[in-house]
Amino acid sequence: MISTGAMVQIGKCYGNRMVDLNASNKKLKVRAVNLVVDLSKYIGSEAVEALHATKWNIKSSILMLSSGAPMDAAAAIAQVSAAKGHLREAMG
Question: Which residue of 7, 35, 37, 63 is 20 to 30 Å from 53, comparing CA positions?
Answer without folding.
Answer: 7
